[in-house]
């Protein structure tokens, strides 16, 4: 570095894992549930940037996880396997004190991560999420049978387009520099998903809500329904119109998703000992 080159302060660690999008962080001791959101493969925390406004008073805050390789973390190597990723996210949540009165939401790969992080926090003796929302994702035991991460770049571009990752108006990005920059992150995330192997564990205690979409080529209704035995609490599945990325489209499916989330989160009462902790829950599959 030359003497004339200005020093640029590195972003604080919290801003790397949980970037803020305009709204200030909640004040210490703020009551209410915090919703922690996990991105889909190749996705960034910015997909959840406006959720705090949509969810209103149903949440104290929305904390979106930013994984390495994207956003302010572009220079970091992305994870390529689930185990270290889950351990690091769980550790960061504990370090920041986000393990009291919280809920998880994850879409596609994000649903898998949310489930595994919930299990990891339980293993650490931390309180579990008050509610787990999974969207556009097969149940964990159905992962590990695909090989998209092995496709050449052209094939990976076609795969991304085929599942609706680019949206209706973005086909020009198929051959553009933007997508080329995103391919390594998408490939790494797909390696996380395709290399994942579920291991039998006790079901989670929290209620679970799942969302499936009518034209989703990645997770059909039956594969989303297969999440049911992963909770000893209540399970509810909503089926919406749309493709795999219905949560990023501006149509009625996204509106319904946010409306259902707002309703479920608003119904969360102050933390009390869960009845399900007293159950002798059966093991999943």
UniProtKB/TrEMBL annotation:
UniProt GO molecular function: hydrolase activity
Residue ranges crossing the lipid bilayer per the database entry: none
Origin: domain of life: Bacteria
Organism: Streptosporangium nondiastaticum
Keyword Transport: no
Protein name: Thioesterase
All residue ranges annotated as the Thioesterase TesA-like domain in the record: 36-261
Pfam family, one: Thioesterase
UniProt keyword terms in alphabetical order: Hydrolase
SUPFAM superfamilies, A to Z: alpha/beta-Hydrolases
Gene Ontology process terms (BP): lipid biosynthetic process
Family from the record: Belongs to the thioesterase family.
């Amino acid at each position: 570095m030359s003497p004339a080159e200005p020093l640029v302060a590195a972003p604080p660690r919290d801003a790397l894992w949980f970037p803020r999008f305009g709204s200030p962080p909640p004040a210490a001791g703020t009551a209410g549930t915090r919703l922690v959101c996990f991105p889909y493969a190749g996705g960034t925390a910015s997909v959840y940037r406006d959720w705090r406004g949509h969810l209103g008073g149903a949440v104290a805050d929305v904390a979106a996880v930013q994984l390495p390789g994207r956003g302010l973390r572009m220079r970091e190597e992305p994870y390529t396997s689930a185990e270290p990723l889950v351990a690091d996210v769980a550790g960061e949540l504990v370090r920041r004190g986000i393990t009291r009165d919280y809920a998880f939401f994850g879409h596609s790969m994000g649903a898998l991560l949310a489930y595994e992080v919930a299990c990891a926090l339980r293993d650490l003796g931390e309180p579990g999420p008050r509610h787990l929302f999974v969207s556009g994702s097969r149940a964990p035991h159905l992962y590990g049978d695909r090989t998209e991460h092995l496709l050449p770049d052209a094939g990976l571009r076609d795969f991304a387009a085929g599942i609706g990752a680019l949206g209706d108006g973005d086909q020009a990005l198929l051959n553009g520099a933007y997508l080329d920059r995103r391919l390594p992150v998408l490939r790494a995330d797909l390696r996380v998903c395709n290399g994942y192997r579920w291991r039998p564990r006790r079901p989670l205690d929290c209620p679970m809500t799942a969302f499936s979409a009518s034209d989703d080529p990645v997770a059909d209704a039956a594969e989303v329904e297969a999440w049911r035995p992963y909770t000893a609490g209540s399970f509810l599945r909503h089926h919406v119109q749309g493709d795999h990325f219905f949560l990023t489209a501006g149509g009625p499916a996204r509106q319904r998703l946010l409306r259902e989330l707002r309703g479920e989160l608003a119904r969360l009462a102050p933390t009390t000992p869960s009845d399900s902790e007293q159950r002798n829950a059966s093991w999943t599959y």
